[in-house]
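Box 3.1 — From sequence to structure: Chloride channel protein
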Amino acid sequence: MQKIWYQITEHLIPVFRRRLSGVDALPQLAVLGLLSGLITGGVILVFRLAIEWPLERFLPGEGSESFENLDLLTRGLLPLAGALSLGLLLHRLSTHDRKVGVVHVMERLNYHQGYISIRSAIVQFISGVATVVSGQSAGREGPAVHLGAAFSSLMGQWMRLPNNSIRTLVACGCAAAISASFNTPISGVIFAMEVVMMEYTIAGFTPIILAAVSAAVVTQAVYGSEPAFNVPALTMNSLLEIPWILAIAVIIGIAAALFIQLVDTMGKHHHRPVLLRIVTAGLLMVPFAILVPETMGIGYDTVNETINGQLGFWLLLGAGVAKLIITSLSIGLGMPSGVIGPTLFMGATLGGAMGLIGAQIMPEHASSVGVYAILGMGAMMGAVLQAPLAALMALMELTHNANIILPGMLIITTSSLVTSEAFGKKSLFLTILKNQGLSYQNSPVIQALRRVSVGAIMDRSILRTGRHLTVGDARKVLKSEPKWLVVEGSNGPTALLPAVDLARYLEDTEKLVSEEEIEPPESIDLMDIPANRRDVAPVQYQATLEEALDEFESTNAEALYVQRHVAPMIQRVYGVVLKSDIESYYQYRRS
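Predicted structure (token representation):
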């Protein structure tokens, strides 16, 4: 058994890592995607049970979302007490440890190559459960995405994979989390690539698809194969409804722009104490909880009732507007809640309300309220997240109805254009990042460099040697025919020397000695002989080409030696990378 384990750890895993350093390691990425989906599916199951179990026992009535059945006093005190508890918890944490949700995942991808800590995952789990259980206007999908990304990233860190693979694992975790939450694998894949990664790659599709499918299988084993909402057979009755659908798209586009603006405005108070902001959000929630209890919690029961035409116009309109206001204020103030669920709630209720108006205007042509509720959900999700394809895929998977595609495409693209072009709003997540003083670089060059590790292009033909050598030692060094000599100093490598320069020096020296012009040197100083030496700086084996370029810029080095920790205080050098190697690789991939 020990021999088998030795073979795995000493031979198979290093080969696995080395293959992953390139951009074409599809079989290895497929295995990682499958593992990511299974792990994420299990984590999301635990997360959902942690929310549903206490609510099913605490709330009167059936299910885990019947906040409406609570008495007025409890409805008012519950979110306030929950906000106070959350505020005290977050107050004890450092600013870095308070960051949670999809925005945090995007930040870790852009600035830290997808490395997410276990501490961050624990904080997200606790705060995600607390916001929903205490009746805040919250969703579970944002926290689920964070948890899926975190545990997938931790798996990659534990396996000491290259950073480009960890980035792919984070995308797998995001897709698996959406898939497990809604039972919508396709929209999970598109969400991960369109919203979080902001890129589509052929190599990325396979592992992300496998992650989404395997996570869906895990949750279906417990919750069944039904989607998150009970959607009846829906179809658009007449093409004469298209002008009204366009009008609804404009209204929802305006509502989405208002939502993003309110979050942005409240986010400008992020410098204030976190306890004050969270308690303020809880106080603001109190009147909404008392007057419009449908805004409490996730609200999927209200969405289901809207789709099935069980709610009246004023309740739909009031709940939609109330949810928009309180959710935007809470998220802007820093409440660690998800936004995808509330987005679907707002879209369903506002779309349903507009559908009832349409039924009064043209009763003989209007479709059911459920059609407009579903279209509103897609429109609001597409506009707020600026992810029209993910929203369209969500509509298809939630309805299992191809008839919804045509009006869905129309309303989603129109509402997204109204929000982005008429009001100049970017995605909610990008807006929050900007408010925090951060950006999200997604240029084609940066994305291409992030997909490849330095291990894929480094030159392994190296030999580490001391600065001072005898002539005999120098010949031994050249006997193995290395391309580069890494000259060691007192604190590690100090220079890179072409081996051919040492060979040329030996030839010239031997020629002069034979002609009796000089005495044979007792030792050779590699830092003194004529040679094209390069100043060096270290880069970790897991680093991407983007990180390597950043290292070149920050150190002004002429070459990077690729190293990895193999034991405490021991670094092993695997190869060297020149700046020209990165440029040549990128040019080759482009052509």
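Summary of the box: The CA atoms of residues 6 and 12 lie 9 Å apart.
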